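Subject: for your reference before the review

Hello V.,

The reviewers asked for a structural picture of the protein, and I figured it would be easier to keep everything in one thread rather than splitting it across files. Below is the amino acid sequence we used in the manuscript, unchanged from the supplementary table.
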Amino acid sequence: MKNVLLFLVAGVLLVTASKVFGQEAQAPVYQEGECWLFRSVSKNYQGYVSGDLALPVNGDHKICFRERKFVEVDGGTKSQISTGSLWNNILYMRENRYLKFPLIVGQKRTVEFETRIRGTNRRERRTSESSILGIEHITSSAGAYQTFKIETNDWCGGKSCGRWIYFYSPQTKSVVKYNYEATLGSTATWEVDLIQFLPVQ
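And here is what came back from the structure prediction:
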């Protein structure tokens, strides 16, 4: 009987530990004053035609959570970041097809959406397929983290038209590495790395 109880207790601890150590992550809760420093490198990337940020600016970007909003801080100036911007794919400003919580290893989702064709007023339907592939140890300039590896593929008329790889860290409450590569008639790429995470002390 004692052995059975020990086995059951061990089983409960194992299940709890697997949840704690990264098999599932809930949506982040941000704290006033938290900041992230990201490095953005893009090539031939035009972003969202109808979005707030049509082109990700290359260089370092300091983003902070202040007064319940995300702002980009550049010296003494602050500019609020819209939830419609590309940074919504890196920091969880609102639910989107890239970061949909809870994150669960093995989870797969397919979403149909409509978007405007770049350079025209015509709209087309696309399909987005996302998979949480597993837990991967990632080392960046900000540190070493256990992350969820997420892959998203967009399909346009039955052809692959874009691929995203995300490494999301519950510890930093953000994506620590992000890579986009166009796959249909374009050489566009966009890479983002977390350089520093500044939690509230």
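For the response letter, the relevant points are probably these. Residues 2-198 form a domain with the YmcC-like fold fold (CATH 2.40.360). The longest helix spans residues 2-23.

Happy to draft the paragraph if you're swamped.

O.
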